[in-house]
Amino acid sequence: MSGIFSQLLQPVKLLTPLNGFRTFSCTASLNHIVKLTRLRVVDNSNLGKQAMLDGKPPRCIHVYKKTGIGTIGDKVLVAIKGLKRKALIVGVKGKKQDAFVPRFDSNNIVLLDDHGNPAGTRVLVPIPSRLRGRGEFSKIIAISSRFV
């Protein structure tokens, strides 16, 4: 069991250089999620663990919101390992945010199944306490142990 967690903590492998250039993004971090944003799965679901170990993080392909911009507490559709899955945003990378909204180092999501239940049984990182007041996230609150 400890071998899996030690592999998760390893740095993500960079893609091979193409035409002598590195293949990573140099754009500034945003305070929201849009299409094609790379995300990090923070629950212990098998699909999420395998995608992160392979170095192919999921990407957002749709935000279930009128504006198309997702923040903490919004649902998104992600492409992960060639499959489409729904997910809930529990952390957004950014520089400046509203008061009393925690700032994260990565864009964190929790994968959901077809019925809206969490795919994993544990959340591995602290989640924002502002999600506690909303009833639709009660199952995610129940499987998480730390709040910010």
TrEMBL record:
Any one Gene Ontology cellular component term annotated for this protein: mitochondrial inner membrane
Protein's name according to its UniProt entry: Large ribosomal subunit protein uL14m
UniProt entry tagged with the keyword Ribonucleoprotein: yes
UniProt keyword list: Mitochondrion, Ribonucleoprotein, Ribosomal protein, Transit peptide
GO biological process terms on file: translation
Primary location group: mitochondrion
Keyword DNA damage found: no
Pfam families: Ribosomal_L14 (PF00238)
PANTHER family reported in the protein's UniProt record: 39S RIBOSOMAL PROTEIN L14, MITOCHONDRIAL, LARGE RIBOSOMAL SUBUNIT PROTEIN UL14M
Compartments reported by the entry: Mitochondrion
Record InterPro entries: Ribosomal_uL14, Ribosomal_uL14_sf
Molecular function in Gene Ontology: structural constituent of ribosome
Family per record: Belongs to the universal ribosomal protein uL14 family.
Taxonomic lineage of the native organism: Eukaryota, Metazoa, Ecdysozoa, Arthropoda, Chelicerata
Species of origin: Araneus ventricosus (Orbweaver spider)
